[in-house]
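User: I'm putting together a teaching handout on how sequence relates to shape, and I'd like one worked example. Could you take chorismate mutase from Qipengyuania vulgaris, show the sequence you're using, and then write out its predicted structure as tokens right after it?

Assistant: Happy to. First the sequence, then the structure tokens directly below it.
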Amino acid sequence: MTQDAQQPVAEDPTLASFRKSIDNIDAALVHILAERFRITQAVGAYKAKATLPPADPAREAEQIARLRHLAEESELDPEFSEKFLRFIIDEVIRHHERARQDEA
């Protein structure tokens, strides 16, 4: 028998506990990302003043390899971790390029 989509479903305490943990982790991830971007904004401003390039391909490759290894150790898909890190790196580079333009 299926539940009518309009009728409230009694909250399963086990599911509620899992969801609460997921919500807490999601909040922590947002805070960690916010702090990471605060720091990378400062790096971008520094690079712009020091006339350093916005991207550092060697550093990026090292970070990707390091985090792929950490992902494997943590039983997280290394392909996923690389895609996630690449997304962050690309956003950071975009910010660094903007800081460079603002400095010029």
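A couple of points you could highlight for students: Residues 25 and 31 are 10 Å apart (CA to CA). The first helix runs from residue 13 to 49.
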